[in-house]
From TrEMBL:
Signal peptide: none
Name the UniProt record assigns to this protein: Metal ABC transporter ATP-binding protein
Organism annotation: Paenibacillus albus
One function term, GO molecular function aspect: ATP hydrolysis activity
Gene3D superfamilies recorded: P-loop containing nucleotide triphosphate hydrolases
Domain of life assignment: Bacteria
Similarity-based family: Belongs to the ABC transporter superfamily.
Keyword entries, A-Z: ATP-binding, Nucleotide-binding, Transport
PROSITE patterns: ABC_TRANSPORTER_1, ABC_TRANSPORTER_2
Amino acid sequence: MLQTQQQDSISLICHKPIIELENVSFAYNQKPVVNHVNFTVQERDFVGLIGSNGAGKTTLLRMIVGLLAPTSGTVKLFGEPIQQFRNWNLIGYVPQKNSFNPLFPATVREVVISGLFSRNKLFKRVTKADSIKCEEALHAMKIEDLAGKRIGELSGGQQQRAFLARALINNPALLILDEPTVGIDSETQEGFFHLIKHMHQHHNITFLMVSHDMEMIRSYLGEKPKQEAGKIKFYVKHSHDLEDCVETNLTHSLRELRHSMERGKVGV
Ligand SMILES: Nc1ncnc2c1ncn2[C@@H]1O[C@H](COP(=O)(O)OP(=O)(O)OP(=O)(O)O)[C@@H](O)[C@H]1O
């Protein structure tokens, strides 16, 4: 009896809605781009968004992270309407690479540490603990030797790792990635997917990722989309398809992964 109750409560926890889109639409200057999307991302799902150029994928992500307000419909994050949601530290967002200005005068370390300053804490002082988290994230992404360089001087793959480190520094519960491997060579891409699959399988992180890499999406999320909304297809791997994860410190676990990869075959 007790065991059944425990199992019920575990399955309730596992099916907590993380993102809820209810009839969400968006138009730029009256030109509809996203039309009546209904979709729920549950805890520890991995959702891949596929669609042709201009299908509205980035627009949808920007509504989910609160950078655009839907023209109609509602977005909920972690069960709360987005207008009331304040816990932005739970969300790591890596926008499309080409939305970054290469002349931005910040070092890699500054970019990574800025991930700690959520929208509510713009002027927070950097503590020793913050610096340690930053070094761990840099190390996990194998870019500690680039920490003092200007972000614009890095290659595309190195910049992506810096932005991923920035997204990881808060130990996010939800990671939103917009075409994270665009312009990156195939070996680095392979390492990147290995890394995010590791994060999905070993940590309680929910993923929402836009990608044009059908091979990667199909190999991890299956052949068929779970849902289609206009030109956007949603591919999903549910949490119940995964083994239970043992929750460990994210950056430590990534450091271990990095070391085992250095000894083995795939490069991060
Ligand atoms: N700021 C903007 N003002 C007006 N129209 C825009 C704006 N941003 C995007 N659009 C238009 O909205 C449509 C959807 O753009 P969006 O970037 O969401 O597509 P996408 O699916 O992410 O495309 P891609 O795969 O090329 O990145 C496109 O037709 C685009 O031209």
